[in-house]
Amino acid sequence: EAGVVQSPRYKIIEKKQPVAFWCNPISGHNTLYWYLQNLGQGPELLIRYENEEAVDDSQLPKDRFSAERLKGVDSTLKIQPAELGDSAVYLCASSDRPSGETQYFGPGTRLLVL
Amino acid sequence: AQSVSQHNHHVILSEAASLELGCNYSYGGTVNLFWYVQYPGQHLQLLLKYFSGDPLVKGIKGFEAEFIKSKFSFNLRKPSVQWSDTAEYFCAVRRDYKLSFGAGTTVTVRA
After folding, report:
1. CA angle in degrees (0–180, nearest 5) for B11-B16-B22
2. Which terminus, N or C, of chain A has the lesser number of Cβ atoms within 10 Å?
3. Half-sphere exposure of B28 toward its Cβ, with a 13 Å CA cutoff?
4. Contact B97 A107 (CB under 8 A)
5. pLDDT per residue over B12-37, tens digit each?
6. DSSP letter string over B86-102?
7. CA distance A80 to chain B (A)
């Protein structure tokens, strides 16, 4: 069974540029999460989807971050414009239950903003 | 807000030594508890989890963890580590569909 797929694995951009990350969850997993992981810290939830609905986006900085999951499968997380402080690893996870009993994580996208 | 504290930032030990990583959380209600591991260059993987029942939970690769409700703790243990256990270990607590992670403990096992 394929795991959670993310791309790109690495991204280097200049500040004020836009950037987008893509995630394909495990087949059949209706619940999808985006996390932010700063250096030396654990992951922090940005947004949670149940199918195509964002059910918890309270931690998403909506002035510059946006996310979508149009068909309830793949998801895209976007930052526009990026700031130096956005340099981090962006993780996607999925779960086969809304309760998120066990979340399966992708490899992450490591973003460096110069 | 719920918080998760991991006691050690970096642990260095020799092969065959015993390992114990501390984890405490601040939330007093019903929680589910997890330990995740991230090997160098790999993604986060589930080591073990506790939902209910026997507070001593056994996971993969010889790891176990004990839930002590009165101490709000969920410490991870392994009696004899191997070089391949070198990784970063994260404790996580789930409450109300939200998973909160500790800052992680880097474990380095010397051959």
Report:
1. 35
2. N
3. 0
4. no
5. 999 999 999 999 999 878 889 999 99
6. -EEEEEEEEETTEEEE-
7. 26
